[in-house]
Structure formats: structure tokens, C-alpha cells
Amino acid sequence: MQISKYIRFILILILVLNIKYTNAQFVEIGIFGGASNYSGDLSDEGVAFKETHLAAALFGRYNFTNKWAVKGFAGYGKISGDDKNYAVAPTASKLDGNFQYWRNLNFYSNIFEFSVQAEYNLLPNDLSSYNTRPFIPYIFAGIGIVNFNPKTTLNGTEVELQPLGTEGQGTTTNNSLKKYDLTVYSVPIGVGFRQKIGEAFFLGLEAGVRFTGSNYLDDVGGKYADATVVGASYGVKAQALSDRSIERTADGLPYFSQDNPRSDRKIFTKDLYFMAGITISYVFRGKGMDCPNF
After folding, report:
1. Which pLDDT does position 132 carry in this prediction?
2. Which of 22, 70, 182, 230 is the most buried (most CB within 10 A)?
3. Residue 243: which of 257, 176, 87, 83 has the closest Cα?
4. What percent of the chain has pLDDT over 90?
5. How far apart are CA 21 and CA 19, in angstroms?
6. Which of 106-115, 133-142, 210-219 has the lowest mean pLDDT?
7. Which among 109, 27, 112, 126 is positioned nearest to 67, based on CA atoms?
8. pLDDT of amino acid 153
9. Which long-range contacts (CB under 8 A, 24 or more apart) does 159-163 make?
């Protein structure tokens, strides 16, 4: 499915929800503030907590029953990874070092997520009265799109990686290998809870993983290309960033050869990212609801 179809699908959902919102009695708007991280080729298939960054979002929730809600989510975060977090340098007893030491890659990227999420409350959510004090645990899942743009620094200068075809994408010898898309689908899944803290306010915690349709959030996902071919197509920076093992070797020659794997990944075939944080929301009630006690 093309990314444009995902965009149209989300826009249609938002339109339908907006139509329902005009007559909804229990609409919430809120903000999210917390942290983001990622799991991929440059996190050793785990999560490097030192690569955690701030994240924020705006959301709107429509509670159409006491168990089900639909939420629109527009979020921002940052992700990053660095082989230095896992590198083991050569020693007298271990002359070869490890894969991350020689690969020597790093990246960082802003991420922008737009998603629609279905929420299921594990306890009934009674919003019909100002006088109740519900504690609401919930689970959620949805569909969305995420935009990213991996970057790194070379000689103190920020460089965007996707245009450089670091794995030979679009070069004369790899013309059939296309550059990866910077906007792909995401599937958010997670848990949360919120507690009423006033007549119409909720305070909560939420954490979720985002499965994505790309293995290139970190610009790594395939094999090494011939660095000279990459350089001939995209320039000196592209050649240097396609194989940074030359920064490790004593003779300045590449440690890796063409078609060597650029990733040692074995578990997940696509990159993931995470968002977790605090939510604050305000409930709009329709006419006929209980009035607050003063």
C-alpha cells in the first residue's frame, strides 16, 4: 500500500470523528509530555537509555461509550543511536574488536507522528457526572504515519543521510535500489491510565511502542556498497559516510567489503520507536450533565 493511501485513510477517519465531535457529549483535549527512544540497528536491538530525548504531543479523545474511545494524536519526538554505545575496541587478547566498533555509525532524527488510536478502558469510564472520581486504566492500538530524517555529523557539520544513498541506493551499479521513504506508516500500541483531578481534568501516564514500516529510521538496513561508486554518484561526503570504518583503521582503508552486511540484526526486521510520558486532558460535557458542586 502506498503511503498516500495511509494519509487518505487517516484524513477520512479524522473527518468522520470531527463530524461526530460536533454532537459528542464527552470530548477531551489534552497535551502529552515525556520521552522518546528507539530500537533498531544502532541500538543493538535493545534500547540505549542514554539516547532518550524529550517528546510532546497534542491529542483529542472522543469517549463514545464508557469502555471505548477514539483518540487523534499529533506528536513530536527525537531518536538517536550510536555504535560507540556498544563498541569493544581491539586489545592484545582480542585483536578484531567487535562489529559495532568497526562499523562506527551514528544518527539522530526528529520524528513527527500523526495517528488515530482506539482505546479500551479496563474499568468503566463514567464521565456523565462531575461528581465521580474515576481511575481509568486503558490499552490502545492504532494506525498512523511518521516522518523522520536521519542525520549525522561529519567534521563538525550536520549532514542529512537519505539523499546520500549510503548503501548505494540509486547509484549506477545499484540503480534498481531506491532511496527509502522519509514518511512511512506506524502502528502505535500501548497502555495508560488517567485519574480525575478536578471537575473536568484528568492526569495520566501513557507508554507505547510504535511499529513502523521502515528499517531505515537510522539509515541502516542493508549491505555495504562500493564506497567509490557512492562517492562518484553523490560526492565525497557520501563516500565517507557510506563506510565509516576508515576512521578506525590504521591505514585508512575500509574494514568492510562490498556486499558485507551493514547490519547484524537478527530479531526485528523493521525499526521501532517509543513514547512515554504524562498526559493532562480536559473534558467537554454536553447539556444535561450533572453540574459541579461548589
Report:
1. 60
2. 230
3. 257
4. 67
5. 5
6. 133-142
7. 126
8. 97
9. 159/237, 159/241, 161/107, 161/219, 161/241, 162/216, 162/219, 163/234
How many residues are listed for the chain in this entry? Answer: 294
Residue 212, Cβ density class (10 Å: 0-12 exposed, 13-18 middle, ≥19 buried): buried
Grid cell at residue 146: 511518521
DSSP letter at 261 equals: B
What H or E segment, with its residue span, contains residue 187?
Answer: strand 183-196
User: Grid coordinates standing for 14?
Assistant: 479524522
- HSE of 43 in the Cβ direction (CA atoms, 13 Å)? 27
The residue behind cell 547484524 is 264
Q: Provide the whole-model pTM.
A: 0.86
Provide the β-strand partners of residue 195: 135, 203
Question: In the structure grid, which three cell numbers stand for residue 200, read together?
Answer: 473536568
Which of 68-82, 119-133, 181-195, 203-217 has the weakest average pLDDT?
119-133
Q: For residue range 129-179, list pLDDT tens digits in order.
A: 656 667 889 999 999 999 999 999 999 999 999 999 999 999 888 778 899
How far apart are alpha carbons 148 and 170 in whole angstroms? 20
What's the CATH fold of domain 3-285?
Porin (2.40.160)
C-alpha cell at 2: 502506498
